[in-house]
Write a structure and sequence with these properties.
Largest sheet: 6 strands, parallel
Order of helices and strands: HEHEHEHHEHEHEH
Strand content: 15-25%
Structural class: alpha/beta
Number of strands: 6
Number of helices: 8
Shape: globular
Distance between the termini: 23 Å
Radius of gyration: 15 Å
C-alpha cells in the first residue's frame, strides 16, 4: 500500500503532466526526496538531477526553446541562489518556467538554520514580481496546472510553494 506522501507525489506529478510538463530538473531536498524519486521513475518525465539550482533554470529554459515544457524542483535556499539566472534568462528572453520549491523556514520547519528562508523568501519572490502559489493540501493540487499554464501565458516563471505540512504532515 502506498503511503500518503507517495500518493501526494503521484498526484503532484499527475497535475504537472496534465499541464504538459515532460522534463523535470531537480536538486535534492529532504522534504521532496520522495517526489524526486517518483519523478525519476515516471515514464512521462525525463528527470535530470542537477548539481546546482541555477543549472535547473538553464536546463529548463533551454528545453523551452526546443519546444519542451519543463519544471524545476528544489529547496527554498536553492531557489534564492537562482535570482540572477531567473532575471537574466527567464525575464530577458521571456521564458516560462514553473518552479516548485519547498517552503523551508516556514512555520512547521524544525530546522532553525532555515529561519532566514522563512523570513526572506516571500518578500524576495514579491520583489521579483513572480506569481506565487502555496499548496496547502490536496484541494489545492489543481492550482499546479493553472500556475503552469499561467507561466506560459505570461512567458515568465511562477513559483509553486510546497509546505512541510503538505509534504511531511503536520506535527
Amino acid at each position: 500500500m502506498a503511503s500518503e506522501s507517495e500518493d501526494l507525489s503521484a498526484e503532484i506529478l499527475d497535475e504537472a503532466a496534465r499541464a504538459g510538463v515532460s522534463l523535470v530538473a531537480s536538486l535534492p531536498d529532504g522534504w521532496i526526496a520522495g517526489l524526486i524519486a517518483r519523478c525519476d521513475g515516471d515514464p512521462r518525465f525525463r528527470h535530470v538531477a542537477v548539481n546546482r539550482e541555477e543549472s535547473a533554470i538553464g536546463l529548463c529554459s533551454g528545453a523551452f526553446f526546443a519546444g519542451t515544457r519543463a519544471a524545476a524542483l528544489m529547496g527554498a535556499s536553492g531557489f534564492l541562489t537562482c535570482i540572477y539566472a531567473i532575471t537574466k534568462i527567464n525575464y530577458t528572453y521571456q521564458v516560462p518556467l514553473p518552479i516548485f520549491i519547498t517552503l523551508r523556514g516556514d512555520i512547521g520547519d524544525k530546522a532553525k538554520y532555515h529561519v532566514s528562508n522563512g523570513l526572506y523568501l516571500r518578500p524576495i519572490i514579491a520583489a521579483m514580481a513572480i506569481p506565487f502559489i502555496e499548496l496547502k493540501g490536496r484541494a489545492d493540487l489543481p492550482e499546479i496546472g493553472r500556475a503552469i499554464r499561467h507561466s506560459h501565458t505570461i512567458a515568465r516563471p511562477v513559483v509553486i510553494g510546497l509546505p512541510r505540512s503538505m509534504l511531511k504532515g503536520a506535527d
